[in-house]
Structures are given as C-alpha cells and as structure tokens.
Write a structure and sequence with these properties.
There is one protein chain. This protein is an alpha/beta fold and 705 residues long. Among the domains are: 136 residues, Sandwich (Immunoglobulin-like); 178 residues, Glycosidases (TIM Barrel, Alpha-Beta Barrel); 107 residues, Golgi alpha-mannosidase II (Immunoglobulin-like). It is built from 15 helices and 30 strands. Strands 13-14-15-18-19-20-21-22 form an eight-stranded parallel beta barrel. Helix 3 packs across helix 14, helix 9 packs across helix 10 and helix 13 runs parallel beside helix 14. The N terminus is likely disordered.
Length: 705
C-alpha cells in the first residue's frame, strides 16, 4: 500500500483563523444567517479541513482558514465577515492511499457537496487528477499540482425567496400526462420564442411553448437532468458535449448553462410560470453516480472529501469502484451521511424550487446494500418524509449490476418506467404475431409486474419512446441505429430497438411508405393514451422529430439532439391528434382507474370483457391463436350512467371484419377514434352490425343507449 502524507506547500498564502469561531455542525453546507456564514462539511476519514475563500472572479484565493471543530464527523466553523456571493472551496487533508480506499489530496480544491450555486469557470486540466496522469503507477502515484485556477467554486447564497401565489397544480396521478423534454433541446429551434431565450429555463415558460403544451393536454413536464453537471473531457476532445446531463457534479445547484441571468431566480420563475398554467415540473435526477468516474477519474468533490464513504468500493480491492451504473462509480446511499445528502437535496428542490416530483435514473442503485433491497434505507427515508409525501416519485427500475432489473420491484408509493409496455407495443406494431396476450397485459397496466402491496395501475408509467433510444419517427424509419456522429464507431446505443423502416432505411419520397409510417405513429400514440397506467411521451414525437437514426444522442448538443419544429402545421404534425387522445382519456375514466380490472366479477358483471372479431367472449384457445394480431375489448363505464368503451386494436396487414358486441343498456356504438384517418367510414353501428377494421389501425367506440 502506498501512502502519501499531503502537507500543503502554498507559500503565497498565509493561513488565517482570526475571524472564525466554532459554529454549528448543522445544517451541512454554507448557511448565511443574516450576519455571517456557517460552514459544515462531512468527512469521516479526514484529518483536517481547510476552507478557502476567493475573490469575486474566482481566480485568486484571498484567505484560508482551518475549520476549528469536528462533531460526529462534521467539520464546521463560522465566519462573521462572509455573506452571499462569497466564492469558496475546500482542501481536505488525509491519507492518499488508493489501495485502502482513501484518495485525500489537499492540493486539490473541492467544491462543497451542498453547493447551492457554482461560480467561476471550469476547464479540464491534468491538475484535476489526484494522481500523475501518464505515470506508470497510474492512480497509485500522487499529484501535487494545485487545480484551483481551473476549478469551479461554491457560492454562498441568500436562501430567502418570496413565492407569490405559491399554489402547486397537484395533478392527481390518474389525470397525469407526462412530457419528457430537454431544457435546451425543447425550445432551441422554436421560432415563436425570442432568440435570446431559446434553450434556457425561461424558454420553457414562453407563451408559445406553454400554448403548445396545453394543446397537447400535457399536465407534467419531466426535465432531463438540471443538477449542475460537467462535459466529459473525452467528449470535448471530440468536439462534443454531455448534452443530456447525466454527469452530476452538484446535487443542490441548478445547471448554469440554461440561464442567461441569475440561474436560481430563472429556474424558480420558470416553475412558477408553468404552475400558473397548471403544468407540473418533474426533475430527472441522477443520485446513482457522479461525474468523478472510475479510479482514474478526476478529484473534484466527493472523492477528495471522503472516497470510502461516498462510493461503493470493491470489498477486497478498495482501490476500485463497484460499478452498478456503467459510469465508473456508484454512489453509496447505504451510508447515513450520503443518504442524508440525497434526502436534503430532494427536499431543497421541493421546498426552494417547488418542483412536483422526481424521476430517478438507474434507481435500482439507490436500493443497493450492495444487493438490491426494496426495503433499503433510501426507500424507508422517502416513505416517512413529510416533504416528499406530496410529490410524484418515479423509478427507472434497473441498473446494470447483478439483479439490477427490478421492474415492479419498488415499494408502494412509487411509480416506475414500464419497459414491459414499451417492448410489447413496439413488437406488436412492428408486425410480430402471437402477442395479443402480452398486448392485453400491457394495455391494462401490467398487473403481473405491479399488482402487489396495495399498488394501483398508476404504478405503471407507460412509454414507447424516451430520450434514450429512437424517437417515434425514427422507430419507423430505421431498422438499425446510426450513431456514427458519436465517435464510437456505432458501437454505443442499444441494438434491440424493435422498430421497422417500413421498406426504406431513412428518409424517402415513397407516398405509401410515408403513409404507413404516419399510421404506425398514430397507432402507437393511440395505444399509449388508451392504455391504463400513466402515459409518458417524448417531446417532439408529436411533430415527427427525428435524430437521423441516432438512438443514443447523449452527446449531440446540435440539430441531432434538439427538437425539430419545422413540421408544425404539416401532415406530420400530430399535436391536435394527441390533444384529442388526451381528451378521450379524460372523457372515459375507465382508462384511468384506481383499481385493477378483474374481468368477470362475482355478481356476473364485467369491468373488462375480451372479445373475438365475432363479438363473442374470448376463450382460452383464442389467446394462443397462431400469429394473432387482433385484440378487442370493452371497458365498462366507471360509474353508473357512464359510457362503456369498445377498443379495437388491429395489428394485422389486412382488414378484419368485426361484429359490435352486446353490452347492457347499449343500443349502438359511436366511433370516437379511428387511427387509420379514413373518415369516409360510417360513424358507428348497432349491436350485431358489422364493421371492417382497416389494416394496422386502432378504433374506439362509445356505447350509447
């Protein structure tokens, strides 16, 4: 084992403790009380912590003081002359012993994990690494260069803020329509937004953007990560950026690149404006890993503060990281102080920014001990927290570690991205047969996965496309991914896309292929909004936004990754179609039930009845019909006097003649949806009348007396 005592040798600056008193160990971070600022930092294994103050530009260190007190592994001190706007950082002393899991290096300026805002500038330099890059001993060597001139600084902030008319939309789960979007990508090419506002937080709340969201019927915008993050060095070397933002540096500070002014106020104003329009804001959060990477990554914060506490390390080889995330490291929420940091972060975004919920990236990692445990401390902490009790919690229920696929495995109170729905719907509309049972399961909120522990249908967040993978337009324009622009020889991104190019790879002028692609898009959207559970759609799918077949555009901060709004008003603009589907969903509450469907009830009535094309109830043999591509069913009215809904899903490449079913108190069926777009067909029919369901289409009929 190599151990390097790191005694700072900064002769240009005289350490000073003349203005510091003991302060308090809580709250963690920098807290201004109107007279001075308390600083508190957790580190269980450090031997000394120095607080470094910088000038307004963040270029010159003006003072360095040693935090004088240590209480239960919290280092703390109070400076009466420090107020809002002060830039600062830490130098944390302790052993540099990678083979023992310790990577202290006091030559490296570190940001505060509780930074509410970052100041100064960051630029990549070898000085950010705790070891000598290129050394034959790699990270076992030790680097004594000061990185402060290249490093962000933490900023002391004034927490005071007055929220005018601070009412949340508080949209019930059953009414929720989620729209996943990237802050910059959503507005960067919209002509109805001022050029200086495009691509910013403020752009999200521009009148044109809000009007579009309301036309769609969106209730909830889910934003890709806005926690302060870094562009990977290897991406910058290729002329690319970490566009999506899954590379978190600070869990408390909003990302500055989406603001032209004061970043905290800009984001608060955006949330307030969206709330005024009745639209919720959910944040995609990345508490599973940080931007510090693997054992050869930089030392920017957590690694240099207390590597052995913050990260999962390989038990017998603590030089290396247990990597459940595929990013090089995994944050250790099993540690009480790391769990506290995550909980404090979540509460801050709810209380200080009024966000309405969170989507947790690679959420299985949050429950690792190191195996996944649905009763892990994180889930228990969230369940009892009064601040988080009223916000939406959505898990991406997997990571890449052993046992990481946990769809349906999260506790009560959580909803989850349901890739069972995604895979089934994609395969069905690609034209695969023998999937009618799977499709029926998907359309009724995947009870096999989620019907346990009192969880309801809202546990299933249904989606066909999200940021990761093909857009809806690309799903029916490409058989294979085309990620060459990412600079990884097209090796990155999933090969399991379950789409079809409809006969031509990429763009085409063939009117038949264009018509088929449009129909398949309409079908997927129709099923998404007719399915029980919570629908989530990807921003831009309503206007046939494509990425040229790139199914991993994480580094494409350009026209590839931005939503292309040029098809607004064209035949490819499905905005009003989506709005009609949302209105249909609101008209028929049986599409948004609190309880699971049973089929035939004890009293002999049905809440759902599965039907053959002849209108007869399906029997066991009908479900295993070879190459079956046709599914129809009636959902009973949700309340007395309501309308039953007859849904027909024809995935076959030919028309299917069907008979309208008999249903109590229904004399005729009125068509309310036809995804084929062939409006020349009659509007409905009476019992025992026949109807020709066109190839590859979705139909819905309301039962009338």
């Amino acid at each position: 084992m190599l151990s390097h005592p790191l005694l700072p040798s900064f002769s240009f600056l005289r350490p000073s403790n003349s203005h510091i008193s003991a302060g308090a160990p809580h709250p963690l971070g920098a807290t201004w009380d109107g007279r001075g600022t308390n600083f508190a930092l957790f580190s269980a294994n450090a031997t000394k912590v120095e607080l470094c103050l910088f000038d307004r530009a963040g270029r010159r260190e003006t003072e360095r003081v040693t935090l004088p007190e240590r209480s239960d592994d919290i280092w703390h001190g109070y400076l009466s002359h420090v107020g809002p706007g002060q830039l600062y950082g830490y130098r944390v002393h302790g052993p540099y012993a990678p083979e023992a899991g310790h990577r202290f290096n006091a030559h490296k300026l570190l940001i505060d994990p509780y930074s509410k805002r970052l100041g100064g500038q960051f630029s990549w330099n070898d000085a950010h690494f705790g070891y000598r890059t290129g050394h034959k001993q790699e990270d076992l060597s030790c680097d004594r260069r000061d990185n402060a001139r290249f490093m962000y600084k933490s900023v002391v902030v004034d927490p005071a803020h007055s929220w005018a008319h601070a009412r949340r939309p508080s949209v019930p789960w059953e009414d929720t329509i989620i729209y996943e979007a990237h802050v910059k990508g959503l507005t960067q090419t919209r002509n109805d937004i001022p050029p200086g506002t495009r691509g910013t937080y403020r752009g999200l709340s521009e009148p044109g953007m809000i009007a579009h969201l309301r036309r769609l019927g969106v209730t909830t915008v889910e934003l890709l990560p806005i926690h302060a993050f870094l562009d990977d060095r290897y991406l910058l070397d290729r002329g690319l950026r970490n566009y999506w933002g899954y590379n978190t540096l600070s869990y408390f500070a909003p990302e500055q690149r989406y603001s032209n002014h004061h970043v905290i106020n800009d984001f608060r104003a955006t949330v307030a404006a969206l709330h005024d329009a009745g639209i919720e804001v959910i944040l995609d959060v990345v508490y599973n890993h940080t931007c510090e990477g693997n054992h050869l990554g930089p030392t920017l914060c957590y690694r240099g503060i207390d590597n052995a506490s913050y990260y999962w390390l390989v038990p017998d080889q603590p030089r290396y990281y247990d990597d459940f995330t595929g990013t090089g490291n995994s944050l250790k929420l099993a540690h009480p102080r790391v769990l506290q940091m995550v909980m404090d972060s979540l509460r801050l975004w709810v209380e200080a920014f009024h966000v309405d919920g969170f989507r947790f990236d690679l959420a299985s990692t949050l429950g690792r001990e190191p195996e996944f445990n649905r009763n892990a401390p994180f889930f228990a902490a969230v369940m009892q927290d009064p601040v988080l009790a009223e916000v939406k919690l959505i898990a991406e229920p997997w990571d890449i570690g052993l046992g990481g696929y946990q769809v349906g495995g999260f506790p009560a109170g959580w909803s989850e991205w349901n890739d069972v729905y995604r895979k089934t719907a994609r395969r069905f509309w690609r034209g695969e047969g023998s999937l009618i049972g799977d499709m029926a399961h998907a359309m009724t909120a995947s009870a096999a996965q989620f019907q346990h522990d009192g969880r309801g249908p809202r546990a299933s967040v249904n989606h066909v496309t999200v940021h990761d993978g093909f857009t809806l337009a690309d799903l029916y324009s490409y058989d294979s991914k085309h990620n060459e622009a990412n600079g990884e020889d097209n090796r990155d991104g999933s090969d399991d896309n379950n789409g079809t190019n409809c006969g031509v790879e990429g763009t085409t002028d063939d009117p038949n292929i264009i018509a088929l692609r449009r129909r398949l898009r309409r079908n997927q959207l129709a099923c998404l909004f007719l399915a029980q559970g919570v629908p989530l759609m990807l921003a831009g799918d309503e206007v046939a936004n494509g990425q040229g077949g790139n199914n991993n555009a994480y580094c494409q901060d350009n026209e590839v990754g931005w939503v292309d709004w040029s098809k607004l008003g064209s035949e490819d603009d499905f905005t009003d179609y989506v709005g009609a589907l949302v209105n249909l969903r609101r008209r028929f509450p049986q599409l948004t039930p609190h309880r699971w469907v049973e089929g035939r009830r004890a009293d002999g009535s049905y809440d759902i009845k599965w039907l053959t094309p002849s209108g007869a109830e399906m029997e066991e043999g009908d479900w295993s019909f070879p190459d079956g591509r046709f599914l129809s069913y009636v959902l009973a009215a949700a309340r007395e006097g309501g309308e039953p809904l007859f849904i027909v899903i024809n995935g076959a490449d030919h028309a299917v003649e069907l008979v309208f079913p008999e249903w109590p108190n229904v004399g005729r069926w009125e068509r309310v949806l036809d995804s084929s777009g062939e409006d020349s067909a009659p509007a409905g029919g009476g019992r025992d009348e026949k109807w020709s369901a066109q190839q590859r289409c979705v139909l819905a009929f309301a039962g009338k007396p």
